[in-house]
Amino acid sequence: MNINEIIKILKKTESFGTQTDSFLNTLAFTSEKIEYSTGDLIIKSGEKSIKCVVILEGKAFIQKKTSPIELKAGSVVGLLSLINNTYPKDALIAGTKGLAMVINRELFDKLLQEFPDFNRNLKTKIISDLNKKVVSLNAVIGQ
Questions:
Q1: 22: domain range?
Q2: Around Cβ 90, how many Cβ atoms within 10 Å?
Q3: Which among 52, 54, 62, 42 has a CA at the least distance from the CA of 13?
Q4: How far is it, in rounded angstroms, from Cα 79 to Cα 141?
């Protein structure tokens, strides 16, 4: 997969879609890419490595105790782990053959430093997401 194809996928994500072309180019070019096959562990349960994974091709599943959550191209997992500096709780298992992009702690910190708008956009997105959750919870409580 070439850089332009990766940028096209990133532009469709909620997490990175509002970022500048310069940011997306840097992210797509410098992040680690990993190929996986059906059944591969992309992230191990209890792994002691903080990272964000963007599914570029194929499918994967977050292994939850109740039921797995299916991810497809454009799905982003672990961004809050990078923001909060926490380890992933659940395993990420490949459902098909595919390709993923990995953003590690070092790259994330570099992006925050080199692209101040990224930091502001992340804060805005988190605040927006929290506000939506509060509205949703208030609707449930108000019933």
A1: 3-141
A2: 18
A3: 54
A4: 29
Tell me the per-residue pLDDT of 23-60, one tens digit each, with 9 for 90 and over.
Answer: 999 999 999 999 999 999 998 887 888 899 999 999 99
- Give the full edge-to-edge strand order of the sheet including 41-43: 41-43, 91-94, 60-63, 69-71
User: How many Cα atoms are found within 13 Å in the side-chain-facing hemisphere of 29?
Assistant: 7
The CATH number for 44's domain is 2.60.120.10
Q: At what angle do helices 21-30 and 3-11 cross, to 10 degrees?
A: 120
pTM (2 decimals)? 0.86
Tens of pLDDT, residues 87-143: 888 899 999 999 999 999 999 999 999 999 998 888 888 888 888 888 888 888 875
- The residues, any chain, with a CB within 8 Å of residue 81's CB and separated by 6 or more, are 50, 51, 52, 87, 88
Count CB neighbours of 30 within 10 A. Answer: 12
Q: How many domains does the chain have?
A: 1
